[in-house]
Amino acid sequence: VRVNTTRVVVAVVDGFGRPRGWPVEIAGVAGGNGSLAVELVEGGRYTARASALGFTNATEFTAVGREVVITLKIPTAVVKARAVDGFGQPRDWPVEVAGAAGNGSVVAEVLAGRHVVKAYAFGKEFAKEVEVAPGREVEVEVKVPTARITARVIDGFGQPRDWPIEVVGVARGSGAVGPVEVLAGNYTVRATAFGREFVQQTVVGVGQSAEVVVRVPTARLSVAVVDDGGQPLDRYVAGVELAGPLSLSFDKPPRD
């Protein structure tokens, strides 16, 4: 009995049309990786399948003629993602897309469609959606909205002083602090002097650098004790008490 056969070749390619070593099969007949070639009974109906990245491409065909060639495409694309700060500078923060992860950047082969690229910094997640077509390579930047703050404290005469100062919840120092990297937003800068706090608010935008100067409203006071004739009596003074924004005590009249 003569049985007519057809040679069937099945191959799998990615979204760029490149041959890949992914699993292929003719259901119930044979399987392989990347491609396979078998002799099938002419006129028979068969199903060819290829699978990769959780996606299966299947097609039914009839074995006719001397040879049938079937190419099954997995609709892949490539996403190249990286993390940048508010100034557009690349940073080594963790980045991930479609299960692939890296520090600063990642290259991921994905199925065509919509994907979310995520970056992590300052204990928070920052995400950006991207739509990618089969056979396309897309570059994506996830911007972490950073800014910089520098703070310093001066006295009422504009002179720098080494009083404690802090960007509340961020950093602290003596006299000055920063520049410190922060997420864009509202911040409080606080200086401490003479047992009191002096506060200034600031708003810093994405990619901006803010300098905050906290002025402690100081002044200089000289006290002289004189008699009715204007002659100094300092040697008779046992103490001086000053009342005002600050309560101060001196053993002798203060000079500047």
Provide an overview of this structure:
The chain has 256 residues and is mostly beta strands. The chain has strands at 5-13, 23-26, 30-33, 35-41, 45-52, 55-62, 67-73, 76-84, 94-97, 100-103, 105-111, 113-121, 124-132, 137-143, 146-154, 164-167, 171-174, 176-183, 185-193, 196-204, 209-215, 240-242, 248-250. Strand 12 and strand 13 (124-132) form a beta hairpin. The N and C termini lie far apart (123 Å).
Radius of gyration: 38 Å
How far do the termini sit from each other?
A: 123 Å
Uncertain ranges: none
**Alpha-beta classification:** mainly beta
Helix count, DSSP H or I runs of 4 or more residues: 0
How many strands, which pairing sense, and closed or not: the largest β-sheet? 4 strands, antiparallel
Proportion of residues in extended strands: over 45%
Overall mean pLDDT: 92
H and E order = EEEEEEEEEEEEEEEEEEEEEEE
The count of DSSP E runs of length 2 or more, i.e. the number of strands, is: 23
Name the assembly state. Answer: single chain
Strand order in the largest sheet: 3-2-5-6
Please bin the fraction of helical residues.
under 10%
What gross morphology would you assign? Answer: rod-shaped
Structure at a glance:
With 256 residues, the chain is mainly beta.
